[in-house]
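ASSEMBLY PREDICTION REQUEST
Request ID: AP-0331
Submitted by: J.K., bench scientist
Number of chains: two
Total residues: 270
Priority: normal
Notes: Please return the full assembly, not individual chains.
Input sequences:
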Amino acid sequence: MFNFRGLVRTLAAHNVEFAIVGGMAGVMQGAPIHTQDLDILYSLRPPNPESLLAALQELDAVFWGDSRNLKPDLSHLQSRGHKLIATRYGRMDCLGTIEDDTSFEDIEGAVDWMELDGTPVRVLSLPRLIEVKKKLHRPKDQLALLQLIATLEERGN
Amino acid sequence: MSFVPWPATSGVYDLRRGRLNAVNSFKARQRELKARSGYSRGVPETERPLSPEPNETEIDRELRERFEAAYDENGVDRSLIRWCLAQSVTDRVRALEETLNALETVRRLDRKP
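STATUS: Completed
Returned structure:
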């Protein structure tokens, strides 16, 4: 059951500092992109990893693809790497950094505040998202890039 | 080109029949695109106008012209982008959720004997 709005609502309820990046950011910015997970870039500054952990526990989170159903703990969430998580509302990738070593604090000037089901949330801006996608070379990223650039043009930015 | 109507009634049979029609229509279109050049890794590099069919009706012509006008030179459906931009942020995400959940339902039905 995919419920991205439920994921965002839960994160916000636990005061997690995060920004939506990746395909879902593209969707929220108006691009007709198909994505099956929610990518978030979260702040590694305490007590944010603790807040994220509390939200993940409420979401019955386990590491995606792990046959042992390993649950993420605080040490996992304090690391800068990508954590691929399965929750009861769908997949969520929790990213400590994006690109080479870009943190949540680094992109704070490149986010738009949007309201999702009444919940204010940071979303990576469309021009910045295009920059990120340009550095990725998988075919799906290249296809998404065309959609994102066309969306930016349609918005008249 | 042919347009596949969504099943008029709900139910497993209609859902499966609608899916089958959609798959056949998709495959036919893939064959048509592949027959032309400018096709790489399963993705049309450029959407060229479809040639009019000999017995094209007024409605078919209008649909074909609308279809052609929707796509840009990269094959991106601009009309879909305009539709997305006309929605609220919440509605954009809701539409994606509904699509994914519908696909999940079809997958579940397919898994059943």
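REVIEWER COMMENTS: The mean pLDDT of chain A is 96.
SIGN-OFF: pending second reviewer
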